[in-house]
Amino acid sequence: MEIIIFETQQELDTYAASLFINLVNEKPNAVLGLATGSTPIGIYDKIVESYKEHKVSFKEVTTFNLDEYVGINPENDQSYAYYMNQHLFSHIDIPAAQTYLPDGMAADMHEESLRYDTMLAAQPVDIQLLGLGHNGHIGFNEPDVHLSGGTHAVKLKEETREANARFFASMNEVPEYAITMGVGSILKANTLLLVVRGADKAQIVKEALTGPITTSIPASLLQTHARVIVLLDREAGRMLA
Questions:
Q1: Catalytic positions
Q2: pLDDT at position 122
Q3: Domain ranges, ordered by start, for the chain
Q4: How many CB atoms lie within 10 A of CB 166?
């Protein structure tokens, strides 16, 4: 596991973006695993900036997102499909047909999960971007006695809904369910890129990266992967020194 701590957000974003840009330049048909939330926004901004400077093309790239809310239409401005278009897809030259998210509007979540895992098996992810929840979740894999290996629908913990409430008009609008890649699906990526910011994440960073491997902290399972790159700002990494 490689852990790098940055003094500024800009340095972190630039470094993270360079990992994606360099990969795509070396392998034009790379498969990228993407994430949403506030953490990746600066990274996506840097990727878009490089594209506009003609330093990279995404015409042959395929992307898979970690998760999507259940019951929110892709056109809804709180859906992750909308987020990805707003922050990345609409600003680069990737064909829409090569960008995939779980379908949160699917009639049968079990069938949708199988469909998504079948696509992931056919096109393994080269690098998977991950954030870290306050309770140690990755994707929407919440702490539990048992974790699902494959893509699945999950009832969100109240702390997760509360953390995401800032994106909605009220807590009542925050979905109770999401569909997410499972930890097993995530661990199949060739490289895992975990990005964490903020002093409020320092304790869970320490527990996830240096503590016991346990399903009560899903991110701790990243310790079992052969190639993990962890990018932290100074506050998030303050308990590792």
A1: 67, 135, 137, 142
A2: 97
A3: 2-184
A4: 8
